[in-house]
Every structure is written in structure tokens, then in C-alpha cells.
UniProtKB/TrEMBL annotation, chain A:
Family: Belongs to the metallo-dependent hydrolases superfamily. Phosphotriesterase family.
Protein name: Phosphotriesterase
Stored Gene3D superfamilies: Metal-dependent hydrolases
Keyword terms, alphabetized: Hydrolase, Metal-binding
Superkingdom in the source lineage: Bacteria
Length: 324, 318
């Protein structure tokens, strides 16, 4: 490893960026809707969860996958000892994330603190919380800190950005700036406007990935082109999901081909948005490997192959995740 | 048979003795566990907690009702160890301190699901602890008005109380018309509800304690000791004499003695906030009981407030 080489923070420590292989940037390993861990009719069988996730990760690896990014943040089931064991057992690199959002998914500590009046957390406090998950390590609540987070993730409410969503975006941006880590945001109802908030914090465009851009309403609003034109990453993160809200894989592949033709091959990221194990909310049970087994052939069929494909699957996520 | 659910199993109500009806081993807002500024080692938590409970026991305290709801750091295995080692009965709750402390999974749930959650924790157990909840906690979110989620929780609590015979304990008694309407619609007698924090420094003026008592509710003066005289009082503190006068005025020469309960709402070892230095459950013995004696209450009246009323309230009505 030369002195100039960059690294990515994985759950097992820094890994040279060039070793990530094919990366899926918007996935979930264990995904727990906050509170579901207390539900009377939900059990969290660690051995069973491990078995399920290990099988999915091995399948991903068998089809050419190298790295899974658990982009669910710090408060949606993130389980670091489990992910460390999974990475060791399967050989798949796992990048875990800090951050949280949108507002509805936050605990009351951040929204109605024990002060009078109960003023929600401002951007600066979120920035500090997220930054320390990178400089000091990710928390196992009330127990210990583990290794540094590899990505700062947040999301905006679907019916529009709330004041706290904005604090989360700004806090995520500041944490990213302070640490050289990238930001991933799942857009709410205005991808370009929400990106502007992050950019307003002076975070370079190429340190930001905007997810949810394969929603039909995003495409209808020209979202993918707008985000790519601004120099940020366009994340089509529901590959394989074909429902009322999302493009079909055929349309998604057309969109990728169009973006490549428009010169944006270096701005595209792909992901399935699978939930390896979901508790308390509907699962997306597609295999992580769907991207490689089903979607890549659609891309090659449209002439997106070779260097372009390599860029999308390997180089773009590598550049995003490499700590600067 | 008179039974009360404690974390170590049901006990006869006759054994409860002196009861602190609204306390916390440790309370933290959901999410506070992510903020390392509040973290304590297990040694520190036991060190802060055990001496307070042992002293409570030595002074004559026998039962400690923990009002820490689901998602607020409720930790029943920990409570079991504390109870076993100190000899203090600990009653754990199901329910939520307020809608704003219910995490998204429960915030999205309907009344039926919430009812089943509460009933399960009362009749089958809390998580995998095997311990049964002995009270149901409900409350009003910050802001002074019951939210729709608060109302769903109150309605589910009423149904679970009717099904299981466990009583309800409220965090705040403001916006009480809405609460009473829900309990009446569900057919829950109001003597199964302790309307708590009527003495709270922020809300006392707008809390209809007498009206609630006249409707048949039980009334909780249960933030005793949060006094403006403290070196660093919280925002809900109140002058000591003002609270005591309020309590004595409410008793109305003993006419409402059967309807009151008193407690300190202290944290043995707070989880997600600094806590209030110098304020513990032992305020009840060190300060409140002497104050009540000085005010002319006899031993029978004190027994009514701290022994008989809690036993009557906590006894499963089945």
C-alpha cells in the first residue's frame, strides 16, 4: 500500500479503496424499524439472523460482489458485532454508516428534549454526533465504540423537508467535511433542492450521493439529470423493485443508458435497496446479487458495458467511499 | 386473592408496605443511548442506585413503582437484580411516558396492536424476562395537548386495564377532559387511574385536580422534592411550601385523603439527562413525611397515603 493510496472505513477497519470490488452502496443488513426491538411479537434471533445474512452475502460474493454498504445509519438496527462477524465469515467487505433520518425515524431525545421549551436538535449537534462516530468510532449503545463509520447517511421526509430534516442534512454535511467522509441522502420530495442544502455547507458535489432517483416522480421531474449535472452521484437504489412508485428494471436500464450517453457514467451508482433481514417493517427480499445477475445483463444489452460498467459498479463507489 | 405484579413475581398486596408510587430507576429519552455523554459503566449505575434503594428499605420503604415506559431505557433484568439484592419490591410498567417517547414502530401502531402489546406485557411478560408489568404508563406529549398518538395510547391502556385488572398511571394530568372522555368511553372506572404530576411546577396551575377527584380519579402529587430551593432545579421545579400547601389544600381536611398518592419521581441513576443532584426517592422519608406530620397529619393519614391507597390501587382487579 503506497502512502498515496486511499482507504475506506469498513467494520473490520480501513481497507484500500481499490480492494472493494463491486460495491452496492444502498443496502441494509439488519433493518429494524426503531421500537420494533421492544415489540411483543417480534424476536431477534441473532444466530438465525446471522445465518440468513451470511447466505445472502455469500450469494452476492459468488456472483462477483465485493462490498455491501449498510446505509441505514446509526438507529435502524445497526449491529456492529454482528456485521464484523459476517464480514469475517463471508469475505464480503461491509461498510456501516452513521447518521439518521428522516425526522419521523428519530427518537424523542432529538425532537422533544428535556428542556423548556423542548427545542429539536440543531445542525451543529447532529454534526457532532455523526462526526464522533467517524473520529472516535460507531456506538454500540451504552456499551462501547467500535470502528469508524464509512459513510454519513440521512433522508428527507417524503412530504417535504422538515426543519429537523434540514438540520440532519446540514449536520451530515458538516460531519462529512470534518472527516473526509461522503454523504448519502435519500431525497424526500425535491432532490435538487435538498442537494442544495448540503452544498450550502460547502461539501463538494462529488462527496454527495442522492438516493431514491429511480422513483417515477424523481424521473418525471428530471431528477437524475439535474443531480448528475451538478456533479453529485445519482443513486438508482431500487434495482429489481417494480411497483407503482418505481421504474421497471427495463426503464431503469434505459435511464442508465441515457445517462451514460449524456456523459454521466462517472456519476451513476446502483443498488438493490434490499433488507437482508427486516424487523417491524415490510422487507425487500431481493438478493443483493440481483444487481449482478439480472440488471447488468439489461445494461449490457443496451450497450453499457466494459469501462462504463466497471466505472458504475466499482470506480464510482470506490471514489465516493474513499476517505479524503 | 390480592395480587400485585412485581418484577420478581406476583406478591400479595398486603406485603407492599410503604410504596413510592411514581419513581424511576433510570429514565432516558429514546435515542439518548446514542449519545456517549450520558453513558455510565454498569459499576457506576449500580453504585448510584443500590445505596439509594438500600436506604429506602432501611427507612421503611418496601415497594418502588418504576414508571419508565417502553423505549425510555426500561431494563427489567436490571430491576430484578436490584430488587433481589435490596429487598425492595419493584413494580415495572408497560406503556409509554407520552406519545413523544414512543418510537416509530409504536407511533405507527393502531389501538388494537398497542392493546395487545400492553396485555402481553401484563399477562405473559416483558420481552423475555418473564416479569409481568404491574401498571400501565400513559402520558401527555410535550406541548400541553394530547396528540392523536397520546389518545391511541390512552385508549389502548384503558382496554388493557379492563382486560387485565392492572391500573393506569399518567404522566401529567393536563388536557384531562380528553383523557377522561376516553376512559369513560371505554368504561374504565376512574379509580383505576392515577392522574399524576398534578403538583408539577409548570402545569399545576392548569391541572384540574379537584375536578378529576370529583369524577372519581386518583390524584398523584408525585413530583415532591423538585424544588426551586435546590442548587440547580429543573424547569419543572416548584417552591417547596407552595407544593405542600397545594397538597394540604387538596386534602381538604382529609375529605380527599382516600384519593391521593404521593411520590418523588426521582431517578436513582438517570440515563439520558443529568438528573437533579440531591433528589432521591428518600425525600419521601427525609422531608415529606416530617412535613406532613408538622402540618398535623396523624400516622393513620400517612399510612393511608403511602400504604393503603397504593395497595388498593395496585391490586389486580380480577
Amino acid at each position: 500500500m503506497s502512502v498515496n493510496s486511499t482507504t475506506v472505513n469498513t467494520v473490520l477497519g480501513p481497507v484500500p479503496a481499490d480492494e472493494l470490488g463491486v460495491v452496492s452502496v444502498h443496502e441494509a443488513l439488519l433493518s429494524v424499524l426503531p421500537g420494533a426491538e421492544h415489540a411483543f411479537d417480534i424476536t431477534l434471533d441473532r444466530a438465525g439472523i446471522f445465518e440468513t445474512l451470511a447466505a445472502k452475502l455469500r450469494d452476492f460474493r459468488a456472483h462477483g460482489g465485493g462490498t455491501i454498504v449498510d446505509s441505514t445509519g446509526m438507529f435502524h438496527g445497526r449491529d456492529l458485532p454482528l456485521y464484523e462477524a459476517l464480514s469475517r465469515a463471508t469475505g464480503v467487505h461491509i461498510v456501516a454508516s452513521t447518521g439518521q433520518g428522516p425526522e419521523e425515524l428519530l427518537g424523542g431525545y432529538f425532537l422533544t428534549p428535556q428542556t423548556n421549551p423542548p427545542t429539536p436538535w440543531p445542525a451543529e449537534k447532529f454534526a457532532d454526533l455523526f462526526t464522533r462516530e467517524i473520529t472516535e468510532g460507531m456506538v454500540v449503545p451504552r456499551v462501547e465504540r467500535r470502528r469508524p463509520a464509512g459513510l454519513v447517511t440521512t433522508a428527507v421526509s417524503r412530504d417535504g423537508m422538515t426543519a429537523t430534516d434540514e438540520s440532519l442534512l446540514r449536520g451530515a454535511a458538516r460531519a462529512a467535511l470534518a472527516t473526509g467522509t461522503a454523504v448519502s441522502l435519500r431525497y424526500g420530495d425535491d432532490a435538487a433542492g435538498e442537494l442544495d442544502i448540503v452544498r450550502d455547507e460547502k461539501l463538494p458535489a462529488d462527496r454527495i450521493a442522492v438516493g431514491g432517483l429511480d422513483r417515477k416522480e424523481a424521473v418525471d421531474a428530471g431528477g437524475p439529470e439535474k443531480i448528475a449535472a451538478r456533479g453529485s452521484y445519482v443513486v438508482l437504489d431500487h434495482v429489481g423493485t417494480e411497483d407503482a412508485e418505481h421504474l421497471t428494471d427495463d426503464d431503469r436500464a434505459d435511464l442508465v443508458a441515457d445517462l451514460v450517453r449524456a456523459g454521466y457514467a462517472d456519476r451513476i451508482l446502483l443498488s438493490v435497496g434490499a433488507t437482508g433481514v427486516a424487523k417491524g417493517h415490510p422487507a425487500n427480499d431481493l438478493p443483493y446479487s440481483h444487481l449482478l445477475t439480472a440488471f447488468v445483463p439489461l445494461l449490457t444489452g443496451r450497450g453499457v458495458g466494459g469501462a462504463d460498467l466497471d466505472r458504475i459498479l466499482r470506480a464510482n463507489p470506490r471514489d465516493l467511499l474513499a476517505v479524503r | 386473592m390480592s395480587r400485585v405484579n412485581t418484577v420478581l413475581g406476583p406478591v400479595p398486596a398486603e406485603e407492599l408496605g410503604f410504596v413510592a408510587i411514581h419513581e424511576h430507576i433510570g429514565y432516558g429519552m429514546p435515542g439518548s443511548e446514542l449519545d456517549t455523554r450520558w453513558w455510565k459503566t454498569p459499576e457506576q449505575r449500580y453504585q448510584e442506585t443500590v445505596p439509594k434503594l438500600r436506604r429506602y428499605h432501611e427507612l421503611g420503604g418496601r415497594t418502588f413503582v418504576d414508571a419508565t415506559g417502553i423505549c425510555n431505557g426500561r431494563d427489567v433484568d436490571y430491576y430484578k437484580s436490584l430488587s433481589a439484592k435490596t429487598g425492595v419490591h419493584i413494580v415495572a410498567c408497560t406503556g409509554f411516558v407520552g406519545g413523544d417517547t414512543a418510537l416509530p414502530f409504536f407511533a405507527r401502531a393502531d389501538v388494537d396492536y398497542l392493546t395487545r402489546q400492553f396485555v402481553h406485557e401484563i399477562t405473559v411478560g416483558i420481552g423475555d424476562t418473564g416479569s409481568l408489568a404491574g401498571v400501565i404508563k400513559v402520558g401527555v406529549s410535550r406541548g400541553g395537548r394530547m396528540t392523536n398518538l397520546d389518545k391511541r395510547i390512552y385508549r389502548a391502556a384503558a382496554r388493557a386495564a379492563l382486560t387485565t385488572g392492572v391500573p393506569i398511571l399518567t404522566h401529567l394530568a393536563i388536557d384531562a377532559e380528553n383523557a377522561v372522555a376516553i376512559f369513560e368511553e371505554e368504561g374504565l372506572p376512574l379509580d383505576r387511574v392515577l392522574f399524576g404530576h398534578v403538583d408539577d411546577g409548570v402545569n399545576a396551575e392548569k391541572t384540574r385536580d379537584v375536578w378529576l377527584a370529583e369524577k372519581g380519579g386518583r390524584i398523584g402529587f408525585d413530583t415532591f422534592g423538585y424544588e426551586t430551593e435546590l442548587p440547580d432545579p429543573p424547569f419543572w421545579a416548584r417552591p417547596r411550601k407552595e407544593r405542600l400547601d397545594h397538597f394540604l389544600r387538596f386534602l381538604d381536611g382529609g375529605r380527599r385523603l382516600k384519593q391521593v398518592l404521593a411520590s418523588a419521581d426521582a431517578n436513582c441513576s438517570p440515563l439520558g439527562w443529568p438528573g437533579v443532584k440531591g433528589h432521591t426517592v428518600n425525600y419521601l422519608f427525609d422531608d415529606l413525611v416530617p412535613d406532613l406530620r408538622d402540618a398535623g397529619l396523624d400516622e393513620a393519614a400517612i399510612r393511608t397515603i403511602f400504604v393503603d391507597n397504593p395497595a388498593d390501587f395496585l391490586t389486580l382487579q380480577k
